[in-house]
Design brief:
- The structure is a homodimer.
- In chain A, strands 1, 2, 3, 4, 5, 6, 7, 8 and 9 form a 9-stranded mixed beta sheet that branches.
- Chain A has 9 helices and 9 strands.
- Chain A starts with 17 loop residues before the first strand and ends in a 12-residue tail after the last helix.
- By secondary structure, chain A is an alpha/beta fold.
- In chain A, β6, α6 and β7 form a beta-alpha-beta unit.
- In chain A, α1 crosses α9 and α4 packs parallel to α5.
- Chains A and B meet through α4, α5, α6 and α8 of A and α4, α5, α6 and α8 of B.
Chain lengths: 279, 279
């Protein structure tokens, strides 16, 4: 009997109307993925682009809180979902569908379904950029995203601590393994200048993001200092980037956004999608 | 036709030989779950107890790095696994089985299997405390743990930021929903004293851990200040608690450990296991 042919999953497809899909990831939680994703999306919108933001963190959907928005997305015919609009962005999040403190105690297959639905049923319209804020880990959400749509590239966020970098290396290896271009590394919570005496303190360390980027031959897209104003911006639904580059705490974030677009131009944002080799 | 009886999953069972199982959780990543779990386990061991530590963070297993240990656990007859021993603790982690940077790109059912195996096949021997370091989220790992063994109680770790607390409330609600006693809340990265000028800076805020604990009617088990020495201890495999209560950065951690044992005595550590109501 001839060997049964291995069943290949269908190749990831472009998302109709969407030029560039940027995944913001990290192996680890709490390093500032959502803060970066939200501010990056805002900056690209402020630069005149059409931008969508998909909050793919099903268990901890923080995008609505950070953007200061809530509401129930409209369900159109054919079960198609209209994203909410805020700050010039089109936004979708599990947090809109399940607001409040009730947790979604979901096993993996449910994660797969909701991400498939967000990718297939949300009416994004024409977008130049879709930013996807990933949850921690290298599991169902990441796999479903990568296997379903052609992700243009991944921005990897880390803090400089050794422990964070251990998880970040796993995330880089994952994106490599599935042939998603790693656009580069952002070192968040990079250093801290005491607001009282002005002296620098490396609370979580400093510089190991650059070292890790070098190790993998990818660019360091920037370092974002520990600035309580950035955290307060997220906690109050007013991300610092919304006040422009000259606003308090926003400078490094604008610099990262510019590095991301430059890098996208370099790798050719319209390159053919990745060939997923994992099953 | 009579309605088909709803199939109840088997009730969670005590783990033979293990008196007390403490889950260290949080909805969110990066708040210091592993730092607390590792130091709590070390302190209980230093107080003369027999302690095991189960690193249940499959995608980001940081316990080996934080304890400075590596090695392949011995596989005994019947596929039983011997935990490693270090700092007076028995320890098991996916990090021992899959060291290095290669990620485990696993969907939910694989998470379920490995946690079942860690609970069923690891030869813990007699333990007074088994500390389980949970990953972020409210998904497969949490469900499998809670549905398999009778967890005595959960310690919830958070930072004081609004965004972290949003996820933490989901974690508390999850444990409540499955009838696992919430032992209390630990506010980590609570405040920061500049090492240069000594003045306090609330980088991530301060005090909202206490507010959230009060809101749910559970104790605040303590506040742990931002102290780069605690981070360096984890990054270098020498957790601060290993140097004793008088060692640098360890005081608040010892205070939390005492609050945890006092609270366990209060709730009756030998109470009957939880009745899991989720399916």
């Amino acid at each position: 009997m001839p060997p049964r042919p291995v069943q290949q999953p269908p190749a990831p497809q472009p998302l109709p109307g969407v030029d560039t899909i940027i995944a913001v990831g990290s192996g680890k939680g709490g390093v500032g993925k959502t803060t970066l994703a939200v501010n990056l999306a805002l900056i690209l919108a402020k630069l005149g682009h059409k931008v969508g933001l998909l909050d793919a963190d099903v268990y901890g959907p923080n995008v609505p809180l950070m953007l200061g928005i809530s509401g129930q997305p409209k369900v159109l015919g054919d079960n198609r979902i209209e994203p909410l609009e805020a700050h010039g962005l089109k936004v979708i999040s599990v947090g809109f569908l399940n607001p409040g403190d009730k947790p979604l105690i979901w096993r993996g297959p449910m994660l797969h379904s909701i991400i498939k639905q967000f990718l297939g049923s949300v009416v994004w319209g024409e977008l130049e950029y879709l930013i996807v804020d990933l949850p921690p880990g290298t599991g169902d959400v990441q796999l479903t995203l990568i296997q379903t749509v052609a992700v243009t590239g991944a921005v990897i966020v880390t803090t400089p601590s050794t422990v964070a970098l251990a998880d970040v290396r796993k995330a880089i290896e994952m994106f490599r393994q599935v042939n998603v271009e790693v656009l580069g590394v952002v070192e968040n919570m990079s250093t801290f200048a005491c607001p009282h005496c002005g002296k620098a303190v490396d609370i979580f360390g400093h510089g190991d993001g650059a070292t890790t980027a070098k190790e993998y031959g990818v660019p360091l897209l920037g370092e974002i200092e520990i600035d309580p104003r950035i955290r307060v911006g997220g906690d109050t639904g007013k991300p610092v980037a919304s006040l422009g580059e000259g606003g308090p705490g926003a400078k490094s974030l604008y610099s990262v956004a510019r590095a991301v677009t430059a890098r996208l131009a370099e790798v050719g944002a319209n390159a053919s999608g990745p060939a997923v080799q994992i099953d």
